[in-house]
Each structure stands twice: as structure tokens, then as C-alpha cells.
Amino acid sequence: MAKHLTTREEDYSKWYNELVVKADLAQNSGVRGSMVIKPYGYAIWEKIQADLDRRFKETGHMNAYFPLFIPKSYFSKEASHVDGFAKECAVVTHYRLKDDPNGGGVVVDPAAKLEEELIVRPTSETIIWDTYRDWIQSYRDLPILVNQWANVVRWEMRTRLFLRTAEFLWQEGHTAHATKEEAVTEAETMLGVYADFVENIMAIPVLRGLKTEGERFAGALETYCIEALMQDGKALQAGTSHFLGQNFAKAFDVKYQSKEGTQEYVWATSWGVSTRLMGALIMTHSDDNGLVLPPKLAPYQVVIIPIYKGEEQLTAISEVANGMVAELRAKGVSVKYDDRDTYKPGWKFNQYELQGVPLRIAIGPKDLEKGTAELARRDTLTKEFVAQSEIGTKVPELLDAIQNNLFEKALSYREAHTHEANSWEEFEKLMKGNAGFVYAHWDGTTETEDKIKELTKATIRCIPLNNKQEEGTCILTGKPSTQRVVFAKAY
RNA sequence: CGGGAAGUGGCGCAGGUGGUAGCGCAUCUGGUUUGGGACCAGAGGGUCGCAGGUUCGAGUCCUGUCUUCCCGACCA
């Protein structure tokens, strides 16, 4: 069966190409580093969107939409922001094509050169803050709690399916506040929203923490993040929430008049998650049979497959199956009854395993006689026969059990791949073996962080929130340290 | 942008020293099948990335060019 997928130790990008194409999730579109998300994959993204969007609204946010094109001049206003994104921007320079005078094709019309180039947004801070200036005059206009669902483009040197595509779908929240405290609280709240979603819906355990100065978002004073561990021992940043201070307010001159009548710059946050979450989902739960989806994200939680010979058997089975569909739907379970006669049962079994459908029910002639159905779990690959009358109670129970099992499995994997290093030798050895998360002392300087990256490819993934304080010495320099930070190789 | 590798039916590949394109999967037709990706028989589908050159003859040799992938620097 492993013919579809290479083993976990092998290169994941190869593994993805196999999996996603066969699993109908996505494929390369032909545009450099971009991808087509196929219907089944998009259905998973829609589930992610729907759940997150509900959480955003519950925390007081509203959706809005800002332009795709950003005038180049906007970018020069916040210095560190430019530094962070300048090297990976797609730029629009012309607005018209014309027939090629030398041949049959078309060429860019040189007469249609734009006065000012437009940048395809790599993120929307600049255009949003330019807009916020007009929205904010008084403390009564604050806070502004806005989210945008959009696509962005980052012309990365190297891309990787789902994890780093040139164009990706995401949401970006951009908030404006009267006080520093309120903005910090917002950034922390949204990190909590992400962490809760990723753990409870995606069944992926995450570390919550702060980025070091070197890993911080371009333009942020503080970057909060959630970090997950993949099956190959590499870390993946699954979401970030930034406290931007007054950097963007100052760059775009966004001030409000306080109760006391003074002019004050507003405080900002931004936060986002992307289709990268789909990569995290795949790489956390999948096995050699394909995807494994947590029930709360599965486009369909249960698939029913009839096993029959001839029209009469199918009719009899369909009657039972349709009864189950109705019963399960009434309980809020999403069900697909696949009675296509163009594919055989065995083919369907494999197909839905590849797609990660949590539960499969098979009904055949023997079941009709005995009043049973075969119930198979995707996560454990176990099968049992259940009385048809029990399906309605058994299925919701099992879906819960699968959801929990996936999280527990991922959590114990992470625990088994979390270590402490107390010397440089120990650290190097762990990193050579793709050990996962390694807690170690660090002297707090960017130079040391860079040096460690150069020597081992490991970076500081985060300084955990509420981190335990303990005396120690930096594994590289031996200088004093007050806490351990989390190192790992990352995507 | 540096360092490697590759472009041949939809996908994956084979095609020593040049001789007029083949295999597996997929697709289509007919039949037998249907409790873990069925089997048999037949069929369709390719200007070999592109442009030149050498040659009686180029998938193969030469030159140029484009693209993609992998390894670095960059990153949600």
C-alpha cells in the first residue's frame, strides 16, 4: 500500500505530490510555485474558514475587503516592513497587451506603462493603515477590529506545496487600539483563538510562544506564534499574532484625539493563518494509506458503501443505507452514500482512505441477512460489525473518539520528540537526528541564534509563554541564561 | 542569484556506438466480475520543450534558448 506514498523518513515534497494528486487535494498549476486546490481540498479549507470566522466574530471582529494592488509608495513608509518584504514582491508595471507586430502572439504594450507601479499585496498592513487614517479621528472610533479573507502573493525563492506557495489563501486581522495594553491583549487573545482552533478542531497540539527578535515579523514589536511538530521532526509555524506597537500608526500618521484632548498615535495588531494549515493537517495525521482527517474538519465524516450483485440487492441495500443517512444527518453527522456502480467496493475503500474519511460503513448481502453493517475507523484502520439499529448512537461516539485519539496521538508523538539539551555536544547530536523540539539555554542574542542556525540549521521556534524560569548557561557561548527556549529545524 | 539534475501519449518512465518511437498505469469498447484498488480480449492517444546545425537519415550528435525540479540564501 505504501506504493502511493514514500515513507516518513523520505522527502516530504515527493510525498506530497503523490498524496495530494491522488487524494484530490491540490496540484501544481503550472504557474511558478502556485497551486490549484481541488474541490475536496477546498472543502477542507472552507471548513477551516467557517470555524475560524465564527471565532473571530465571537471575539468582536468583522470582515472587510481591501484592494489586491498596493501602490509602491505605500511600502516605503515603514522601514523594517519594506526590508522584510521587498525581496519577494510581484510588481505590476503595465496595464495593457497588444498584438505582437513580429508574430502571432501578444506583447506588453510599452505605451501602457503605469505611472506608479502596483505591488500585488504580500500582506495588507500598508493599504489598511492608509485607510485607517481616514477612519480614525477620535477615541470613540476605537477599537477597529477587522479581518480580511484574501489571497496574497510572495515571490519566494523556493516554494513547497501548501507550506510555501507563491500565492496563498489566508486571513489577516488588522486591529487598531487606543492603548498599548489593549493591543497587547488583542494579540494574545487572537493567539489563543488560533491555539484553541488548531488543537480542538485540527487535533494538532501546539506550543504557544514569542518569537525572538531575529524571527519577528517585519514591523512588529512582538510576534506571538503557535508552533507544531510534524512527523518528520521538523517544526511548522502554524499561526502568528503580532503586536505592532505604533510603528504603522506613525508611518501612516494615524492619530486619534483622546478624552483629554491630546493627539495620540493608535496601537496596532495583525494576525493571520493560511492554507499552510492544510499542510500542517496533512503532515501531522497522515499515514501511508493517505490522509487522516479529524472528524471536525472532514468534508464528509462518514461514507457508506454498498456491496452488491445485481439491481435487487442494490435496491435492498439502498433502503437500509438511506435510512442511515437520514438518521445520521438528523444528528448533525455529514454522510455520503456512494452507490456509484462505476467503481467497485474495493476501489472505493481505498479512495476514501486516501481522502481520510473518518468512518466507513459497508453494507452487503450478509449484513442484510443479519441486520448488521461493517464499521471501519480511518485512524486505527480497525473494523467491526455493528447492528444497524446501533449505527445512530455508535457513529457520533466514534467520531468523538477519533477526534480525541488523533490529538492524543499527535501529542504523545510530540512528547516523545521533545528533549532537553545541556551541552553543545548533546544539542548537535539531537539536531543531527531530527530530534524534534529541543529545550536549551540561550544567551538572548541574535548573533548566537544565527550562529546556532549556521552550525545546525536549527532555529529558535519560540520562547514559550509562561516559561519556567531557571538558571543556566547558553549551550553555545556558556553565557548566563534565565530560561530555556525551544529549538528545532523548521520548514 | 550560485551549485546539481531533468524535459518523450493524461501520469510515471525506457529508448548502448544515429535507421523513422515503446512499456506500466490511466482512458475507451465488449464480456465475465463486485465483502480491500478485478480479469480476459480488443481499441484510441505522442509535431520526443523550443530554434537552429551536422547527416541520405536526429528522441539520440553539436550550438543556442526556454521551462521545471532538487541543494543553498529568503519566508505564513
The total strand number stands at 26
Portion of residues in helices?
A: 25-40%
Largest sheet: 12 strands, mixed
Rg, Cα atoms, Å? 26 Å
Q: Which residue ranges are poorly predicted, with pLDDT under 50 across at least 5 consecutive positions? A: 1-23
Structural class: alpha+beta
Mean of residue pLDDT? 89
Distance between the termini: 27 Å
Number of helices: 14
Strand content: 25-35%
State the shape.
globular
Description:
There is one protein chain. By secondary structure, the chain is of the alpha+beta class. 35% of the residues lie in helices and 28% in strands. It is built from 14 helices and 26 strands. The chain has helices at 12-22, 39-58, 72-75, 79-85, 125-135, 180-200, 247-251, 276-285, 311-330, 345-354, 365-370, 391-416, 424-432, 446-456; strands at residues 26-28, 35-37, 62-63, 69-71, 91-94, 97-99, 106-108, 113-120, 144-153, 167-177, 207-210, 222-229, 235-245, 255-257, 263-265, 267-274, 302-306, 335-337, 359-363, 372-377, 383-387, 418-420, 437-441, 459-464, 469-473, 480-488. Strands 3, 9, 10, 11, 12, 13, 16, 22, 23, 24, 25 and 26 form a 12-stranded mixed sheet that branches. Strands 18-17-19-20-21 form a 5-stranded mixed sheet, sandwiched between helices. A hairpin with a 5-residue loop joins strand 20 (372-377) and strand 21 (383-387). The protein binds one RNA strand of 76 nucleotides through residues 1, 11, 13, 21, 28, 30, 32, 84-85, 87-88, 123, 152, 154, 156-158, 163-164, 168, 170, 217, 236-240, 272-277, 307-309, 341, 343-351, 353, 362, 364-367, 374, 491.
